């Protein structure tokens, strides 16, 4: 099994080492029982390539991926099963693993919106329309996109059933392209909307 080295720094007495050249640093900190920083430095050539993400959204996607990786590292160093290990499997920082980890916890709105803007629906349908439209037609279309993205962001909140209705969930799924259905993005939307529908049903039946 291929692994990366976890560097542990007792931050009360020491500074965290500088990031090596041509590396991506994953870092997490814990305060108990003592203040420590845990870092993993991944060679840039082995980190997730986001060069195919549209330039205007690349920083958002990169930030979301780093956030997911930090959550993975934190879970690894704080779990009773793996705490104290100085090596962490490389596979935990691959794209599918990060998306799966995020989906099993709470997807951040930044991550979901990044996935949406890199989806087939957005790249092949929405983006060309934005480029082609002008005037009032463009403004109306942009307003529709903004409403859709607000629904997606709400889906990631801790209590989405408080801000989303069944009609909102229907609109989210209507805008999921067939080509996206089997991607991590599509699977998350399907699972999360069904979860929220269940909560809405429970609330409607409460006496």
Proportion in β-strands: 5-15%
Distance between the termini: 54 Å
Order of strands in the sheet with the most strands? Answer: 2-4-3
H and E string = EEEEHEHHHHHH
Shape assignment: globular
Query: How many domains make up the coordinates?
Result: 2
Number of helices, counting only DSSP H or I runs of 4 residues or more: 7
Give the uncertain stretches in residue-range form: none
Write the layout of secondary structure elements.
Elements: E1 3-5, E2 7-10, E3 23-30, E4 36-43, H1 55-78, E5 87-89, H2 95-104, H3 109-117, H4 120-132, H5 135-155, H6 166-174, H7 184-205
Antiparallel strand pairs: 1-5, 2-4, 3-4
Helix pairs in contact: 1-2, 1-3, 3-5, 6-7
Provide an overview of this structure.
Strand 3 (23-30) and strand 4 (36-43) form a beta hairpin. The chain has two domains: 1-105, no CATH class; 107-207, no CATH class. By secondary structure, it is α+β, with helices and mostly antiparallel strands. The chain contains seven helices and five strands. Helices cover 52% and strands 13% of the residues.
Summary of the model, kept short:
The chain is α+β, with helices and mostly antiparallel strands and 207 residues long. It has 7 helices and 5 strands; from the N terminus they run ββββαβαααααα. The chain folds into 2 domains: 1-105, no CATH class; 107-207, no CATH class.
List keywords for this structure.
three-stranded antiparallel β-sheet; 207 residues; alpha+beta; 5 strands; 7 helices
């Amino acid at each position: 099994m291929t692994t990366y080295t976890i560097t542990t720094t007792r931050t009360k007495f020491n500074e965290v080492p500088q990031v090596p050249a041509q590396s991506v640093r994953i870092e997490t900190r814990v305060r108990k029982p003592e203040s420590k920083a845990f870092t993993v430095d991944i060679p840039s050539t082995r980190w997730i390539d986001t060069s195919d993400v549209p330039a205007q959204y690349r920083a958002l996607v990169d930030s979301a991926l780093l956030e997911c990786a930090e959550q993975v590292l934190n879970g690894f160093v704080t779990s009773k099963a793996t705490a104290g290990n100085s090596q962490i499997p490389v596979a935990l920082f691959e794209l599918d693993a990060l998306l799966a980890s995020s989906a099993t916890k709470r997807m951040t709105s930044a991550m979901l919106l990044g996935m949406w803007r890199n989806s087939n629906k957005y790249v092949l349908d929405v983006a060309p329309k934005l480029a082609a439209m002008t005037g009032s037609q463009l403004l109306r279309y942009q307003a529709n996109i903004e409403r859709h993205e607000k629904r997606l962001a709400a889906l990631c909140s801790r209590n989405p059933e408080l801000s989303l209705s069944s009609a909102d969930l229907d609109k989210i799924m209507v805008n999921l392209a067939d080509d996206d259905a089997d991607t991590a993005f599509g699977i998350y939307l399907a699972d999360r909307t069904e979860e929220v529908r269940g909560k809405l049903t429970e609330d409607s039946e409460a006496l």
